[in-house]
Amino acid sequence: MSLDEIIAGIIGNISSYPHIKRNYQDISKILYFSQAWYLAENNRKLFNGDFAAYSQGPTNLEFWKSCCDNPWEEIKLKAEVYLNTHEAIAIDRALHMFSKSRPNFQEEHTKQGSPWKTTRGNLDIGSQCWKIISPILMRNYYGYKLGKDYSKANNPA
User: Fold this and answer.
1) What 3-state DSSP class applies to 58?
2) Which residues contact 83 (CB under 8 A, 6 or more apart)?
3) How many Å apart are CA 53 and CA 56, to the nearest integer?
4) In a 10 Å sphere around its CB, with 0-12 CB exposed, 13-18 middle and 19+ buried, how is residue 118 labelled?
5) Residue 13: which region, alpha, beta or left (left: phi > 0; alpha: psi -120 to 50)?
6) Coil, strand or helix at 29
């Protein structure tokens, strides 16, 4: 799926979670968790695109470039999209995880997550970083949470 289709899928399902904002900050975190859970479950990417280990948590570069002028502006639904079961599960899992979090937990969780920390190395939390988070790190870290062992698996597609 394209990034726009995934964003449409998130926005289309966000109404069940009224306290989640439709802005860059919230959608960006949900994109990361959707990609991570999909990688963990299916050993392939939900959508093409990379996440940088930015100081405020994982950031999808394409989405960031499209929103960087006003990250607090509401993201509008461009078109309806129909998700298959695996795509819907990944997005719903990400929305549920995000919605159950206490305030600011999303940033803390992404910072404490192994893929983010490993990619950033010894950088201070506030330091800028545009290094790309490996999909393999994401898959392995979240796969472990699902009880999957990817130690002998091929790289995700």
Assistant:
1) strand
2) 1, 9, 91
3) 8
4) middle
5) alpha
6) helix
pTM over 0.70: yes
* Beta carbons of 30 and 91 less than 8 angstroms apart: yes
Give the type of residue at 38: Y
Alpha helices in 48-147 (DSSP H): 61-67, 85-99, 105-112, 114-120, 135-145
Q: Is 143 left (phi over 0), alpha (psi -120 to 50) or beta?
A: alpha
Q: What is the pLDDT of residues 45-99, one digit of tens each?
A: 998 889 999 887 888 888 877 776 666 667 766 667 778 888 888 888 888 887 8
